Amino acid sequence: MTTPDTTPETTVDELDRHLASGGRVLDVRNPDEYADAHIPGAVLIPLSELDQRLGDVPPDRPVHVVCQSGRRSAQAVQQLLRADIDAVSVTGGTSGWSESGRPTETGRR
């Protein structure tokens, strides 16, 4: 079993390359946080809903997971790995993405 100490992590630079190649990103923050600013193309599934919505995460491709800074995304990655979904936590999360000068979007989806 994977433990929090072994949660796969990646950087916002790698996330940028992942998205440029057609990859997907899962945002596990709360809806109000997502509405304030999110990574373009990010799919919102709040961490509190992830167990019930695992079927909304297609298992055919790796998914990069973000939250605001990295704690919730690490928890989400653990849940996804237990469900045999290839996932990686993005260190720095949406804050790191924004601080790197990359664009964000606002509003709900």
UniProtKB/TrEMBL annotation:
Membrane-crossing segments per the record: none
SMART domains linked: RHOD
Domain of life: Bacteria
Pfam families, sorted: Rhodanese
Chain intervals for the UniProt region annotation (Disordered): 90-109
Domain Rhodanese residues, every copy: 19-106
Protein name, UniProt field: Rhodanese-like domain-containing protein
